[in-house]
């Protein structure tokens, strides 16, 4: 039963927030009723299929579409010669700042080829099969040139790019004097870590369905942000924002590859306008490897200086990664390295090498996941060199304030995560000697690592309508990537309104709804819960005004702070007999419904009036805000086959208020499993001479399946943070993956005495 005081900070005791409620959209998903972006049955629908480049660098010398055009059912074959140009290119300097294109280069606008798999033609036909067949009949002759392959290419020119303000190329950051501190350090460890290129591979491939009605465009799109996609399309097509509607009711995973606007979306819209019919385009699994970005292949060199007691005195970090021919882009690995441990001297820098590939992008904890792999392995090397327990060395370097900016933490429960994780896992039973524990033929190892993820400042809006039949509709243009946004936001709204969950419906994923941020950087739970909380306050205030001004109402003269709402009945907290239902109050006022709106903030630094005005989150810019956690991993390594199995896992996280115990646990399991995948399996390989991906399918691109994963133990530390947002919620989308690869690598080191610094740790590296 939910019950709510008007100005209560966060959720009421005994409310539904935090409860392990089953997914509200679960039934729709398992019965097929949930509509994904490629599943809208539209009249006159046609199908778009790309024909793609077989070379990685050069020009289109000629292109012949005659055969394809002759096929039955083919409506059009677009190439750079006949597809209408867009109004604004993604790299246009006068582009609006509210969207960031995945890459600056747009295919099908010129004869240039920058990467293999780049679209060279777009066929539109009346069936998918006809379009696919016709696309195979497009004949292209190329003027091919020798491509470059990035950091794996011995000819590659490696250079330090200039940081772009507000851009995606991070720059050199330094505090203190790391070089001098390193020279004086009595203990030093240095090593280079490599991370394979990774692709996101969500279950649902990216899909666009574009429908024009006159000069209005509706796009059903698999995107992590409907507003981002709306801004991108309206800019590139030269349309006012309100003429573009973007709908994403369900998303089958995103992991960052649906967090930017990529070429296929605007090209499909352009094709639909040209043929005068709705066009649906779904990327094939193989095209997913060359259309929506990836995590760049990268090397990191990290050098630690420390005292004999294991206190860090200097951290030097350098990253080198591959980027496309037209954009400078790199994950910002140094940020997490700069704040995880107390250390007065620090420097990070970034180098890149060009490759004939598309631009890389945000991928599952971009920066934090690969960055912690390096620092958390290096910390274990330091611990090993000094004969200190890995957990103990982390405690000796525990950062009581954020070392990157000197600020206090809004909350930090990492010590509790370490302690609880160690207890659940049985860390104290670990034999300190590496390679010394056996079980049958297997070498047994235990490893651990820290996790953290920042609170990225964000704001968004929500609307609440309470109807005179006693139910409510709550709306925000947010995304549910599949992790439970529908469910947790219904819980938040139910408690904030004092209604049972059955009488609340939460709607999302449409640009006609109030604007919410892109679901990226783990901001959705924190931002949207806060917006809903504020909108609910506004709606309740308006309902109460109807009664407090009405002499015949038992609530005549009541003020918001005197009131409690329970099961849709508003009453005086001190005299519960005096009250009436939302329905009765609206009935008396002859209203069918009343509407409240609210803006929510996640993180600090915002001064907009009205944003979280009622929460206690004032002056938050003084604080550094992060979630924290700890992973503990046991592996069995087969010394003859080099095969690694993760046999036990404990993850303990502290992320403020947990909105739903069940969906949160599932999300943490998913993140950790992806981390185990990155540690042991995930890699996209490219042939260095042709610069083509050689394993661009789910048969050859390995991710863990259930048989690879043990029964994992996940817990949360109860944490109250009044600075983050109105609900005290920190995101849990990405933290669960951060540090996982290091925990696995550290366990392998403990099992075998061998340090493998190359991800993924496949069997041949342990032979
Ligand atoms: Mo996430 S990689 O910030 O979409």
UniProtKB/TrEMBL annotation:
Record SUPFAM superfamilies: CO dehydrogenase molybdoprotein N-domain-like, Molybdenum cofactor-binding domain
Keyword Oxidoreductase: yes
Occurrences of domain Aldehyde oxidase/xanthine dehydrogenase a/b hammerhead (ranges): 31-147
Classification via InterPro entries: Ald_Oxase/Xan_DH_a/b, Ald_Oxase/Xan_DH_a/b_sf, Ald_Oxase/xanthine_DH-like, AldOxase/xan_DH_MoCoBD1, AldOxase/xan_DH_MoCoBD2, AldOxase/xan_DH_Mopterin-bd_sf
Pfam family, one: Ald_Xan_dh_C
Keywords: Molybdenum, Oxidoreductase
Presence of the UniProt keyword Magnesium in the record: no
GO molecular function: iron ion binding; oxidoreductase activity
Record-given protein name: Xanthine dehydrogenase family protein molybdopterin-binding subunit
Organism in which the protein naturally occurs: Hymenobacter jejuensis
């Amino acid at each position: 039963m939910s019950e709510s005081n008007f100005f209560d900070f966060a959720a009421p005791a005994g409310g539904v927030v935090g409860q392990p409620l089953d997914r509200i959209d679960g039934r729709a998903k398992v019965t097929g009723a949930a509509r994904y972006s490629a599943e809208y049955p539209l009249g006159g629908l046609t199908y778009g299929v790309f024909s793609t480049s077989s070379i990685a660098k050069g020009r289109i010398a000629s292109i012949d579409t005659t055969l394809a055009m002759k096929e039955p059912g083919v409506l059009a074959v677009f190439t750079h010669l006949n597809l209408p140009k867009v109004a604004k290119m993604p790299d246009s300097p006068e582009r609006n700042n509210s969207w960031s294109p995945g890459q600056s280069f747009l295919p099908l606008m010129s004869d240039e080829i920058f990467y293999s798999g780049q679209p060279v033609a777009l066929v539109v036909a009346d069936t998918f099969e006809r379009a696919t067949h016709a696309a195979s009949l497009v004949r292209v002759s190329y003027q091919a040139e020798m491509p470059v392959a990035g950091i794996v290419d011995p000819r590659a020119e490696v250079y330090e790019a200039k940081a772009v303000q507000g851009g995606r190329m991070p720059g050199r950051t330094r505090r203190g004097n790391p070089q001098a501190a390193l020279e004086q350090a009595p203990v030093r460890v240095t090593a280079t870590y490599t991370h394979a290129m990774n692709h996101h591979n969500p279950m649902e491939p990216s899909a666009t369905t574009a429908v024009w009605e006159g000069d209005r465009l509706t796009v059903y799109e698999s995107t992590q942000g409907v507003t981002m996609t709306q801004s991108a399309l309206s800019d590139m097509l030269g349309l006012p924002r309100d003429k573009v509607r973007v709908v994403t009711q369900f998303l089958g995973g995103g992991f960052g590859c649906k967090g930017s606007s990529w070429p296929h979306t605007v090209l499909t819209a352009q094709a639909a306008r040209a043929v005068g019919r709705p066009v649906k385009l779904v990327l094939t699994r193989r095209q997913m490897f060359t259309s929506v970005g990836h995590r760049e292949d990268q090397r990191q060199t990290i050098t630690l200086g420390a005292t004999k007691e294991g206190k860090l005195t200097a951290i030097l970090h350098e990253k080198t990664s591959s980027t496309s021919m037209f954009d400078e882009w790199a994950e910002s690995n140094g940020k997490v390295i700069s704040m995880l441990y107390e250390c007065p001297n620090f420097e990070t820098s970034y180098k890149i090498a060009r490759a004939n590939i598309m631009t890389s992008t945000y991928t599952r904890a971009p920066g934090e996941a690969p960055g912690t792999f390096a620092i958390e392995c290096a910390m274990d090397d330091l611990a090993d060199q000094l004969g200190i327990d890995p957990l103990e060395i982390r405690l000796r370097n525990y950062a009581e304030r954020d070392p990157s900016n000197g600020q206090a933490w809004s909350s930090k429960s990492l010590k509790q995560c370490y302690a609880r994780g160690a207890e659940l896992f049985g860390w104290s039973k670990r034999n300190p000697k590496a390679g010394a524990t056996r079980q049958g033929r297997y070498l047994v190892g235990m490893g651990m690592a820290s996790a953290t993820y920042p609170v990225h400042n964000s704001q968004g809006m929500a609307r609440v309508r309470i109807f005179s039949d006693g139910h409510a509709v709550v709306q925000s243009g947010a995304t549910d990537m599949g992790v439970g946004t529908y469910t947790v936001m219904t819980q938040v709204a139910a408690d904030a309104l004092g209604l049972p969950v059955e009488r609340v419906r939460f709607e999302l994923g449409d640009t006609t709804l109030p604007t919410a941020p892109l679901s990226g950087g783990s901001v959705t739970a924190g931002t949207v819960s806060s917006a809903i909380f504020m909108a609910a306050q506004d709606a309740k205030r308006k309902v109460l005004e109807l009664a407090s001004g009405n002499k015949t109402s038992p609530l005549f003269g009541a003020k918001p702070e005197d009131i409690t709402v329970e099961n849709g009945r508003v009453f005086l907290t001190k005299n519960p007999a005096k009250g009436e239902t939302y329905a009765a109050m609206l009935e008396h006022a002859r209203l069918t419904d009343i509407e409240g709106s609210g803006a929510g903030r996640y993180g600090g630094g915002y001064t907009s009036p009205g944003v979280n005005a009622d929460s206690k989150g004032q002056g938050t810019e003084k604080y550094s805000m992060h979630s924290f956690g700890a992973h503990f991993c046991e592996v069995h390594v087969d010394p003859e086959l080099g095969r690694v199995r993760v046999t036990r896992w404990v993850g303990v996280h502290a992320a403020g208020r947990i909105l739903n115990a069940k969906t949160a646990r599932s999300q943490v399991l998913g993140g950790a499993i992806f981390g185990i995948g990155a540690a042991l399996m995930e890699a996209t390989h490219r042939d260095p001479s042709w610069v083509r991906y050689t394993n661009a399918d789910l048969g050859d691109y390995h991710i863990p399946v259930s048989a690879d994963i043990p029964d994992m133990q996940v817990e949360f530390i109860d944490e109250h943070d009044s600075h983050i947002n109105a609900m005290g919620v920190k995101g849990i989308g990405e933290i669960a993956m951060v540090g996982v690869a290091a925990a696995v690598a550290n366990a392998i080191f403990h099992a075998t005495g061998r340090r493998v610094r190359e991800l993924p740790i496949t069997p041949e590296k342990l032979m």
